[in-house]
Design a protein that fits this description.
This is EexN family lipoprotein. By secondary structure, the chain is mainly α. Helices cover about 80% and strands about 0% of the residues.
């Protein structure tokens, strides 16, 4: 009986343990826009292959958006200058 109980509970315990190892949901581009230093770290890790996946895409999208905003602000400042 003990062997049967152990055989039935072992997969459940293993599945629960593996579920705990799942990574958290990837951070969004909006997160990286607000946390530029973290975006830079993630992009550096992505470039070396130490970091992969959705966070690399989100960090790159955040960089594109912040660069775009900086260009727009620069253009507006130049247009206002006498």
């Amino acid at each position: 009986m003990r062997l049967r109980h152990a055989l039935l509970t072992a997969p459940l315990v293993a599945a629960a343990g593996l579920g705990a190892c799942q990574p958290a949901e990837p951070r969004s581009a909006g997160y990286f826009i607000e946390h530029r230093e973290e975006a830079a770290r993630v992009l550096a890790d992505c470039a070396t292959g130490a970091h992969r996946g959705a966070e690399c895409v989100a960090a790159q999208a955040a960089r594109v958006e912040t660069d775009r905003e900086a260009r727009i602000q620069s253009y507006r400042r130049q247009r206002q200058a006498p």
